[in-house]
Specification:
Layout (H helix, E strand, L loop, with lengths): L8 H12 L4 E2 H10 L6 H13 L3 E6 L2 E6 L7 E5 L5 E4 L2 H13 L10 E4 L2 H4 L2
Helix pairs in contact: 1-2, 1-3, 2-3
Length: 130
């Protein structure tokens, strides 16, 4: 039987806080929210829990301005995002054409088991209208 990661109270607290957050958040802001709610969790533990959640597919992560941002995602679904550069509004999207393109490009170059991350940054309708 494979090794299973323990679901510690810290990881569950981070998962719950991430689920309650709107859009993508940094580890620091999530840590601040947990501390404000009375948690004694440490920042390093929040980073570790977020990395575990992202690795397990329970959280999405992206790099913005050199910082890792995270958000809870729909489990067991491969998807991409439209992300507003202004306010951070995020929409999960399906991109079947991207899936086919990634497979084709990988095959053309002799690669197998392709994995990719595609996020599209722009301005949401509300931010576009200001």
């Amino acid at each position: 039987m494979g090794t299973m990661k323990r679901n510690t109270w810290q990881r569950e607290a981070v998962r719950d806080a991430l689920t309650d957050s709107e859009g993508f958040v940094s580890a620091q802001s999530l840590h601040g929210a947990l501390r404000d709610a009375g948690s004694s969790i440490g920042l390093a533990t929040v980073y570790r829990a977020l990395a575990d959640l992202a690795g397990a597919g329970d959280a999405d992560s992206l790099q913005q301005d050199g910082e890792s941002l995270f958000r809870a995602c729909t489990p067991d679904s491969h998807h991409h995002h439209l992300i507003c550069r202004e306010c951070g509004t995020t929409v999960e999207i399906k991109a079947d054409a991207v899936e086919q393109w990634a497979k084709n490009v990988a095959t053309e170059h002799g690669f197998t088991q392709p994995h990719h991350i595609v996020d599209v940054f722009g301005l949401c309708p509300a931010c576009s209208s200001t």
